[in-house]
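Tutorial handout. Part one gives the primary structure; part two gives the three-dimensional structure as tokens.
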Amino acid sequence: MWWRCTLCIIVGSSLLAAASWPAEAFETCFCAKADAKQKYCGEIIKFDPDDAITVRVGPAPISLPTLNFAECHGEAVPASPASPPARRDAVVAVPVTPATRPETPIAQVEAFGIYGSNTIGEELMPRLIAGYAQHERLLLEGDRCDGELLLRRTATGPAVAIACSARGSHTGIPALAAGKADIAMLSRPISAAEQEIMRAADMKDMTTLRHEQAVALDGLIVIVSAQNPASALTLDQIGRIFSGDIADWSQLGLPAGRIYVYARDDASGTRDTFNTLVMEPRHRKLTASAKLFASSSDLSDQVAADPRGIGFVGYAYRRNAKALAISEPCGIVQKATVATIKAEDYPLSRRLYFYTGKLHSVHAANFVYYVISDAAQEVISRSNFVNQSIEAETGAETRARVRDFERARPTEPDLEFDVAAMQRLRLDAEHAERLSVSFRFRSGTATLDTKALQDAVRLAAYLSEQAHGRRILLMGFADAKGTFASNMALSRQRAEEVRRVILATGAAISPDAIVTRGYSELMPVACNSDEEGREKNRRVEAWLMAE
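Part two.
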């Protein structure tokens, strides 16, 4: 089945290092997802993320289905190696907080590399490494991603050496393929050319949960000085400005003055994302007169000081500059906020990724695991990036969003409207609060992408731990291609697929607690004039229903 490849348990990334862990053996415990009392502790002999973990329990090995077991902590419950647990039909393991795991030893020689994005490496990566050190009760030497950092259990004990280099997203995958890095930081998805590099290194598909983790969210924002009267621009206007086609502010109906363009250098993943989302679809290239920067912080400060300047940075680097809203031709206007970025509704929202290959250190694996766990989300927020924890809007905010759509519906030739469906949606909004997660799918498929698979686990945990018995409404939406009726069926199918995956996590959730509905092409978050906008509209939102 499709999930056999794409839904390796998230904790699997921390176990990939099993084949190259330090020579001294130490016990690791694994608990059944459906019953934490069913526990097996011992030395790991073999790990296959698509099949089973083999653990030596006493004198004999025992095979545990990877899809049904997660690493845990505590004294072993007596188990009979002759009676291994039966495979259940569960699919994803709920992430285990790293603090609950046994303390990981440090070998005399242990090292790994982290290479790639300056956007991640400049501020976020050092803070994540510091957070990991604190969480694992380690001493950290070094505070910048520009050389070697050391992790130790004691001041004079053996160290884990982390070679950290943030020279741009384009450096991450080649370092991973060459074995210099265990973790590649990319502020954009892996490219087709980079996939080929990894295939040559015997990594067949880097877009599965075994290799690809969305670790944080960011929004690419277009910034001007606070003294600049501009408030919103279309993507077409932005493309024309940065290509030099619009060279004076008067061409936009603003006070006259030459426009000065500031941009990230061509080694930057931020620049790659800007090209992909803004320039390339409009067949434009950055003007030769643009002033280039290696640092987003420096770029932002320069724009903030220049009333005629304009630039682009990640959301975390707005600093003292003013972010412009994005106005789309069909009438949709989106501001960059934590809520619109977290739901990926904002047109220039993006994911920050870790890509992993063959891990050479147990601490490299545990670090990746830490970054996607609940424990790291506050660190991500303090670094001014957008974390992936699930939050609820107020009911007033949810209702206002629906009212705003009804008052100023987007105008597109193919966009249909249905009064009865809108009435149903309005009634749902009267008794619900939208959650911050939206599920999206692999391009051209009905399969959830890797972030959506991670979010299914997060939502399952949220429902079982924080929702206090309330029901969840999964609302499917579609783009404007096809008839309203056919899109209604498609949107309902998408909602059902998310429900299926959430229930398959094995979390303690009643099937009756998840309600699904389809709303066809209502409430678009982007114009349907291009494939990028249509992909944003093909989504499933999660609304928390009133008790």
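Part three, for discussion. The CA atoms of residues 225 and 304 lie 4 Å apart. The first helix runs from residue 3 to 6.
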